[in-house]
Write a structure and sequence with these properties.
Layout (H helix, E strand, L loop, with lengths): L3 H5 L40 H22 L3 H5 L14 H17 L3 H19 L6 H20 L21 H24 L17 H5 L2 H4 L6 H12 L3 H10 L4 H5 L1
């Protein structure tokens, strides 16, 4: 059983259960402040029960999301409209991101660089692959990618880009990403930026899409809306420009940090 000191540690993982996602979950509006939850003060000990619990939890959630993605549109084809049916295929990318968002939170809370890097890259890659499979939904897509952008850029710096606090596990030069991980991250970032522009363009043009700032509070409704809810005409020219800027800012912080880390210019990553 975990000691009382362990139980009181912020973001701790208690055996045999894991904590529910914190206030940054999609179930309620978030007050102004950091988008990523505050991590534990220390990384999980390698080989510990807490680390095993986290790995098992995340792998189960990612497997469930993968199965729902493989069964996408199955509800519409079968006439099953109950959104609570376990294992029902995703009807849009908003549903997928709603499932993945709390997983990102739990991984970030772990404060364990090796797990954060591995799982967040896996999640980012799965989202990139899903973008072409669903109608484009700007609000959940931009907000989720912005959250990953903050996580990746923080991991590259070893410091939270939101709060300026050092990340756990990076003391003394530990926890740094390998060159292989940085190159993999760059590949995912490049593919995602291209995919977002292409998917937005398929709806007609970027200016036909409702402007959504990635800095807005995200709620469950943001990830649970239909394509019709999210694809509305913008009202003025300034909204057109803001939306185009949001598209251009996808993974912008990560691009800068990768450029510094790999000794190449930020724009060069883009293309």
């Amino acid at each position: 059983m975990a000691s009382s000191s362990e139980a009181q540690e912020p973001g701790g993982f208690l055996h045999p259960t894991l904590p529910s996602p914190p206030s940054s979950s999609l179930n309620s509006p978030r007050a102004p402040g950091p988008i990523l939850p505050h991590p534990r003060s220390k990384p999980l000990k390698p080989g510990s029960s807490k680390e095993s619990d986290l790995i098992n939890y995340v792998e189960q959630k990612l497997l469930a999301a993968s199965r729902r993605y493989e069964n996408r549109f199955s509800a519409a084809l079968s006439g099953e409209e109950n959104p609570d049916v376990e294992g029902r295929g995703y009807r849009n990318i908003g549903e997928q991101l709603q499932d993945l968002n709390p997983v990102v939170d739990v991984v970030w809370i772990s404060g364990t660089p090796s797990l954060q890097i591995t799982f967040l890259l896996t999640i980012a890659l799965s989202v990139t692959g899903s973008l072409q499979s669903f109608p484009f939904m700007p609000r959940p897509t931009v907000q989720f990618l912005h959250k990953l952008d903050l996580a990746f850029s923080s991991l590259l710096k070893g410091v939270s880009v939101e709060t300026g606090e050092p990340l756990p596990g990076f003391e003394g030069g530990r926890g740094k990403l390998s060159t292989t991980e940085k190159v993999r991250m760059r590949g995912i970032v490049e593919r995602t930026r291209v995919a977002v522009v292409e998917c937005a363009g398929k709806e007609g043009s970027l200016v036909d899409v409702k402007n959504v700032s990635p800095f807005e509070t995200d709620t469950e409704d943001d990830f649970n809306m239909t394509e019709d809810d999210d694809m509305e005409n913008v009202e003025d020219e300034s909204s057109h420009r803001r939306w185009e800027m949001d598209i251009a800012r996808v993974y912008e912080k990560t691009i800068v940090e990768l450029g510094l880390a790999l000794d190449i210019s930020g724009p060069g990553i883009d293309g």
